Amino acid sequence: MLSIEEAKSRLETAGQSHVLQFCTELSAEERNALLEEISQLKPEELIEHCRAAAEAASRHSSADGRLDARMKPVPPEFIGSVSKSDKETLKTWGDEGLLQISQDKVAVLLLAGGQGTRLGVPYPKGMYSVGLPSGKTLYQIQAERIQKVQELANVKHGCKCTVPWYIMTSEFTLGPTEKFFKDHQYFGLCPSNVVMFEQRMIPAVGFDGKIILEKKNKIAMAPDGNGGLYRALVDNKILEDMERRSVEYLHVYCVDNILVKMADPVFIGFCVNKGADCGAKVVDKAYPAEPVGVVCRVDGVYQVIEYSEIQPETAELRGPGGELLFSAGNICNHFFTRGFLKEVAEKFESQLKQHVAIKKVPFVDGEGNLVKPTKPNGIKMEKFVFDVFQFSKKFVAFEVLREEEFSPLKNADGAPLDTPTTARRSLLAQHYRWALTAGGNFLDEQDKPIPPKHSVTQNEDPPAICEISPLISYFGEGLEKLLNQKNLKSPFLLDENEAKNLVQTT
């Protein structure tokens, strides 16, 4: 640990000596905690960070739409599509993906550094239950999908494969996440195949370029965005772990999408088939002004343009068939080769764009009093995981159906979109469709038939409540032998016990 003198010297070099202004008032324990934080800050990086934050904030306030004229949609030949491909093509891609999974070449990487603040809970989002009949959390659903895709590969290829699960956490989420997994026996996964690591924390900075103190002995820190992944892969030797396990392909995703297909064989197979080093799943934008980023090209380079950076008239542009020209909505669901991640981490990480978030950051004033600001007073800098698309030698996009693959959980109930209710409805509607397709018939509590409805929106519950465990079916496969011509009483929960009962009554 640094001595007081070493800390003073380091901070003076960076022009941040105010960080120690309350040092004489601190207990030994408090002082050591502050010195430990300071020891993580390299003077040259701190100088650059504070300078860049102040500069970026001034640019942020005067941002305009100059990117619009340089934007081009992704060329059709670099886009795969679930809805526009025939069954044989989709099967070819799926078979390729399962082959790679069976050879232990595929891993999933979860971006889980954020807290559930907007959800109104003090714990990580992955621990959240949206109110399914089973009571399962996002973490459990995802863990069971990994088990199922391993099983599908094992059955097809007569092997026993492993899909490692890398989980990037932050200072805020690592401890609770580790405890949650241990308390739940890793949801049936082998603990050695669940690898948690921590992304870097960086200081929040005031508009004057000075580090903000949130307590007398604590710097206001924030995770460096999901683009902090590339630095964290190096800091935590994760790339070496992947190489040791012979992992070649990574499926990277955000924790809050309840419909995410873990190590999706079709997506993996498509990307491998195309020889891609980088790929992104996209959904058709629901409407021109939808607040999602757009995957496109700018000056010939692939990137994601945030919705706030696109002028309304550009968002409204349409192609010859009336479709939106810039329709490829980013859902933070990506494919990377390990070689590409290694190249980014070693060569390009320092070139990633810093994105500005102007926030209300609680701070202590010159008298040591805690102040909760009523208007934004601080700058948090973030890097985004998708900003590496520009370095790809072979980028592809893969268009999927929103109702099957994208329903994020971001806001508490009461908000119009992306709430526990909309997430729950999305999953239950998907499972209801699967059951109907498999030939199931639903009954109400009085054993009266419930008329089927094949199209259900996020604004309504499906006519019958049906939840299907990921351990039973990954994407609707294998259900006909269980459900065909069966009367299913709503609410219906198809788990392993119910599956055994159905087999016995067949």
From TrEMBL:
Which keywords belong to this entry? Nucleotidyltransferase, Transferase
Organism domain of life: Eukaryota
Which intervals of the chain form a coiled coil?
none
Q: Which CDD domains match?
A: UDPGlcNAc_PPase
The answer, when asked if Transcription is one of the entry's keywords, is no
Name of the protein:
UDP-N-acetylhexosamine pyrophosphorylase-like protein 1
**Originating species:** Cirrhinus molitorella (mud carp)
